[in-house]
Amino acid sequence: MPRKSGAKDPIVATSATGDETDTRERILHAANRLFAERGFDGATLREITEAARANLAAVNYYFRSKDELIRSTLESALKPIVAARLEALKACERAYPDRLPPLESLADALVRPMAELSSGENRDRLLLLLQVRTIAQAATNSVVADHFRPLHERFIDVLQKVLPNLSRAELALRYDCARGATLQILVDLAPAAQLVVSPAERATTIDRHEWLIAGLVQFVSAGLRAPPTVLRQPTTRKKAPGAATKPR
Amino acid sequence: MPRKSGAKDPIVATSATGDETDTRERILHAANRLFAERGFDGATLREITEAARANLAAVNYYFRSKDELIRSTLESALKPIVAARLEALKACERAYPDRLPPLESLADALVRPMAELSSGENRDRLLLLLQVRTIAQAATNSVVADHFRPLHERFIDVLQKVLPNLSRAELALRYDCARGATLQILVDLAPAAQLVVSPAERATTIDRHEWLIAGLVQFVSAGLRAPPTVLRQPTTRKKAPGAATKPR
DNA sequence: TCCCCATTGAAACGTTTGTATGATACAAAT
DNA sequence: ATTTGTATCATACAAACGTTTCAATGGGGA
């Protein structure tokens, strides 16, 4: 059966009707979960379609290939977190119409949406695991970067106003630091924190979720607020404390 | 070649003599690189053995299976970074025999070894990529965690002395934050920093490597030094952290 | 009613995967 | 010279992979 020329392509026909969220959506959902659990290479289409109660060929029907499914999964998974962070940033600016928002509020806007989306009543950590996986995968990393770029620029713009003493380069560096700290805390499967804390001490913590967010915000805020870095001149080639360079 | 009685298993025979570093070592080296580049599932044994100029069966000869190769690769890759950080910590303590080392030195001991091992004349970022991959992979994550645990405990112990006002739980949390920030900065393939900084501004940076380390240390030190987190009671309606505790 | 077409289903495709097998080369010990 | 054990090689194998094909299905306009 020869296909008509681009008339009704099932791959792009979803948003047209609007309620076709059946098989395609189930596949996307299952793929999200399994990609996060076992990685993009580790999760097979057979597992995904089985979990989605769909036929194996459905993947190649709704998406062209596994690569396209990965891309679609990333887009659908990243959209909520970007939107939530952007919304939190806007709300933060709205709360302080005349003056600049405090740094703690900005840090909260950066940290909280990801914490809510990952550990809340929502699916558990899948979004974060997906994100971590894409960091190491050059192919998917560009997709993620493209989605996040506007958000990052918005955040750095606001931070630049709050912290005018920092160069934009250093500010961007610290923004990356903040992202890394957030990701690490929320995704790490074996954090040093959990190993160290005694059960009794953990029991006193009323709400671990809120405690994590508060601690993260505290750390990130202080890190962002640090005075500008002054590079030690290498004129005196004195090794830094604890250098102990190992020759190869 | 002197030979002991009993079964000589080639799998455990390497560390005995010490100079048998030929094919087995080449495979380990190639596996390190390819696992980091394409992931544990993405890198095939045929690619690895070809890159190592070894026969395909050599993997199952020196290691029992691909899983064992992954484990061996992780161990050999993690050992240097753990040793380097531990050595840096010891050197830091040695440099201040009578009083406690400054926080910046401790942060440097945490950050610098990984930066040196990843971006120096050494192989590029492979160790970091490996580490990031293991974060998301539950199976390999335990191996990594086991290797890092003594190091983490040592670091947190020292930090606890320098920052006695923090609970051990919060200290461990901030230590994880510091690890996350370090990992993110050193591994990220598409950092916001690189996208934002103008080429001119980057040109002024004499040594980007040293600049990254200094900025990281500055951020981490300030984050660790932040005052203890006070949990805001959720009785208040809106999340308006107005408690802007001025640092000094 | 019929036809159309988007969707689903089962089965097979060719390729690539990790692993296993047996032959062979080589060097030291017997 | 023969034996012995280590190491490397080409090759084979079953399983699993992503992808394709084609028939069956079913509901909505004509």
Automatic annotation (TrEMBL), chains A, B:
Chaperone in keyword set: no
Alphabetic keyword roster: DNA-binding, Transcription, Transcription regulation
Family matches, as Pfam families: TetR_C_30, TetR_N
Species of origin: Mesorhizobium qingshengii
Keyword Zinc set for record: no
UniProt protein name: Transcriptional regulator, TetR family
PANTHER family (UniProt xref): HTH-TYPE TRANSCRIPTIONAL REGULATOR BETI, HTH-TYPE TRANSCRIPTIONAL REGULATOR RUTR
Region span, Disordered: 1-20
